[in-house]
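Sequence only, no structure available. Ideas?
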Amino acid sequence: MKRALTIGMIATVAALATALVVSAIAVANAQAATFTATDTADLSDTHPGDGVCNSSAGTCTLRAAIEESNALGGTNTVQLLPGGAYDVNTWANPVVCEGTYPWILCNCEGSVAYPGLDITSHVNITVAGSRTGGPTFAPGNPRTSEPTPATIAITARPSFNDPFSLDCYTTWSTFRIEAAANVTFNDLIIRGGCACFDHFGGAIKNAGALTLTNTTLASNTASSGGGAIYSTGTTLISRSSIGGGNNAPLGGGS
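Reply:
I predicted one. Tokens follow.
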């Protein structure tokens, strides 16, 4: 009886120890992580989920940081360099847009996976040195104390010089926020997005919870509506600018 009891106790202790280890790993994975994208190129992470933002060039990029955040879960922060100019390449294949305003069709050669920046986790994308939640306007705390915004822009692309004013050589929204995600953009400039296959949301297509603080969306285009933002989720905009060339046949700025 003693032997059977001892074996049973050992099995119970082993099971508890295993559960504690699994729980500890889950807690560690859920802890907030901060990734600083020091490389402005558009390169993927080599091993998403290992907790290290590391592209094929051995650097941390915006895309690699977002991929790590998605894989880790929890609520994470991606920091960009003040004044940095980050490239995003969303035109994997050539796009041809043609038609008569407001009906414009976009066709792409072949089919590709979404090449933009897909966000599935909770993440704050901001500039290194920004105060949490953006600046407050109070005596002794001027806006000029904030770092220079970082710019996220679509890789330079040729122009079709279309008579329909839809220069759409990209295929997708720059950012796609999934339903389960909660995303904050702070101290950023997002420009040059062109949603052709997505049709809506040249800069941001949001199905989750989006907050814009001290952020400018400019010169973004969509083939249908929401040149800057198309949102089926929740959107909170604070001290931000949406305008400056955003356009779409069925609704430009947002």
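The chain has two domains: 1-30, 34-242.
Hope that gets you unstuck.
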